[in-house]
Amino acid sequence: MKALLFSESGDLASQLLTLLRDKFEINAYILSKDDISEYGASNVFQIETSFPYADNLSSFISEEFKKWNYHVILMVSSPLTRDIAGMLSEILKTEAITEIMKLETGENNKFYTERFFFGGKTIIREESDARIFTFLAGLTDPQKVNTKSNVQKIRIDLKSRVSLVNEIEKPKSSVNLEKADIIVSAGRGIGKKEGLSVIQQLADVLHGEVGGSRPVCLDYHWLSEERQVGLSGKRVKPKIYIAAGISGQVQHIAGMRGSKTVIAINKDKNAPIFNECDYGIVGDLYVVIPKLIEKLKK
Amino acid sequence: MYNIIVLFKQILDIDQMKIDEKTGEPVTKNLPYKIEDLSKNAIEEAVRVKEKYGGKVIAITFGGDQATMSMKEALAMGADEGIILKGYRENNPTLTAEVLATKIKTLQYDIIIMGNQSADSYTGLLPGKLSSKLNLPLLGNAIKLEMEGRKARVTRSGEQRDYVIESDLPAIISVEQEINEPRLPPLVQIMMAGKKPMKVEEIKVNVETYKKVIWNRAPKSDRKRVVFEDIDKGVEEISKVIRSEVK
Question: Is residue A47 part of a domain?
Fold first, then answer.
């Protein structure tokens, strides 16, 4: 089955190629100059364009889809590809299933997909005749193959109805939570921004990273957005995940479900996080964490 | 002066949702509905545009009879008129887009504001679908919105940088949570909002899609759930676990 893979970055494209190259014959279209020639794509097309946006990319992808008789379109989920998936599903009059973590092919051109539902509380398995799929990032680590792809540059000059006025550089990302082995995350239960210092101390002792729940990152801005663990933030899979003062809202759980060992510290005995942890301590994190640090330092 | 349409979704209150321990399926019976989180940001932004530049806000939801309370809340937040479209079927963005587009085509508007994803299904397809169906530019994932004459300008958050983008009107704007802090109208105001015009309509559309739910259930958690109420004992055991893992 021929598949068109579209991705904004080489890293995301190589993840998706690793995951799907045994199922499909894939041509990868990427919006970057990254070298992804060793991940099993038949052809790699590096797209050059003045302003890549959802509408002009959708027109381009739909033209390629029709011209080369691709069977499916595969993308890694992002704000851009989400918009593209919506547009493409209308242009090509086909269903799109987004943010999936599993794709199986069935008989008669049917596909089976699995994705989070109800904000991460459940997983939904659906049968559909969809042809457009977006996948969660980080489902697999890229692995090379022995063959090499054909690499070509293509220039597209399709007009967008949206124009770029300005780009604002963000401070360079200081953290890559997705790749961290140990994460200590702070929740609303820390009570105040200063409480982060105790979280940081524990992370330092363990040579880990500091993460946070949605309220801590997005509502109170005590931590930067890039440290938000959750369905709408980073999906992490460390060896050890310590949730301190985090109640365990579903959307947070969905973001840390891939963790090997989960440790919860919370004052509230009934906090849902205790149903989703391997080890838990019921107690004030300001009492528990210093004791834990002391023990670990020994 | 802008004619603003705001689209909002009503969802089950997921935080109150329980899981049936035998089947792993969500218990949806008797669960209250609420306005979806990002939809609240959309309503707030629509009302702010009106307050700043003047105009009128029409709130539209594709729901059912039970959407009346949510619509009153949207009106209490500052929307001027409400339209409830009946016939919602579970998570079918293609149907939702068709119904909304059919209604929107009969209205006069400059901007359409909506959330970029919904907190229950997270499909995020609707902004793109409406953009194609209505043939309108999409200013997606806005963390800031400014109006300037017949143009809308949006700041869109990216991984390494933010982008300031603009388009002519009419346009669709999808918003992220960061864009604002939705106001909380007092209950009295929600009751009073019943006096604002609110219509319930049914729109017949024909949409053929094939998508069938095989199952929908909570992932099995095989966590050990060893919880200590004795802090010292817990610290003792957990530090051992951490040590064996970190080495």
Answer: yes
